[in-house]
Amino acid sequence: MISLWPARALIGRRHPLFLIDIDKAHLAAAREALTQEGYAVDGKICDIADAESVADLRRHLQTGPGLRVLAHVAALAPSCGDWRKLITVNLIGPHLIAAALGPLMVSGGAAVFVGSVAAYVLDIDVRLRTVLADPLAPAFLARLEAGAPAPMTPGLGYAYSKAGLVAWCERLAVEWGARGVRVVSVSPGLIESAMGARERAHNPDTAKFVGQTPLRREGSVAEAAAIVDFAVSDAASFMTGIDLPVDGGLRAATRQPPAG
């Protein structure tokens, strides 16, 4: 599960690629582009938020040689849907993928999931963190809504989804480590991308975060992709169970006490 940029420029240099996408036309275009550039690439349509679709993906892959790298970069921003859709894609989806494909990971392999600096903006109590820890449980969305201290909104759903994902990756690293498989999360801040532009158009207030970012700029997709590539490479072979903020220092800035 990987976007075209890191597939082309980074991970694809070391491994054959298998792409998944919910959009048939987008997947076909990505496969064609990468094939024309000389990469070994295959792919399949999959809805990561649908258990049967993910099970079909597993059936397709389990006849192969095993997975060395799992790069899960599918996510929705707050402007892309209601809070239920955001939680479903951003948190339930990664759990479904990990449950299905984790057993196919080979020793020495690595998985990376994309979080967000939004994972750090909320003070989530232990009771709600317990709910977020099991998004595949029955009535999960209803339990989350009932336990939230404020009415659920897309922005709140996004933050909960990313906080739940980052915490889960830490636990997953402990679980998968016994098999020699590493797990990390990568949490971008403001990234100059098509989705980022849509988000700023939907919520102009997000522009203020550029001024709060110590480097005083947005990051690029290439910069974020390079961290994904490093995280799954052999150069990071003793790194697991951590979150890597790629945010120009935004998280650090928000953690400082007010001046004066």
What is the topological layout?
Elements (H helix, E strand, L loop, with lengths): L3 H6 L7 E5 L2 H13 L4 E5 L5 H11 L5 E6 L10 H19 L3 E10 L11 H7 L7 H8 L6 H24 L4 E7 L2 E2 L1 H9 L5 H5 L6 E2 H12 L10 E4 L3 H5 L6
Parallel strand pairs: 1-2, 3-4, 4-5, 5-8, 6-7
Question: Would you summarize the structure shown here?
Answer:
With 260 residues, this protein is an alpha/beta fold. It has eleven helices and eight strands.
Number of strands: 8
- What's the N-to-C terminus distance? 46 Å
Shape: globular
Helix content: 40-55%
Sheet bearing the most strands, described?
4 strands, parallel
| SSE ordering | HEHEHEHEHHHEEHHEHEH
Spans of at least 5 consecutive residues with low confidence: none
Radius of gyration over alpha carbons? 18 Å
Give the amount of beta strand, in percent: 15-25%
Instruction: Return the average pLDDT rounded to an integer.
Output: 91
**What structural class results from the helix and strand content?**
alpha/beta
Quaternary structure state of the chains depicted: single chain
Structure characterization notes:
This protein is α/β, with parallel strands linked by helices and 260 residues long. 46% of the residues lie in helices and 16% in strands. The chain contains eleven helices and eight strands. The chain has helices at 4-9, 24-36, 51-61, 83-101, 126-132, 140-147, 154-177, 194-202, 208-212, 221-232, 250-254; strands at residues 17-21, 41-45, 67-72, 105-114, 182-188, 191-192, 219-220, 243-246. The strands form three sheets. A four-stranded parallel beta sheet has the order 3-4-5-8, with helices on both faces. Strands 1-2 form a two-stranded parallel ribbon. The chain has a two-stranded parallel sheet with strand order 6-7. Helix 4 (83-101) links the parallel strand 3 (67-72) and strand 4. Helix 5 runs antiparallel to helix 6. The radius of gyration is 18 Å and the shape is globular.
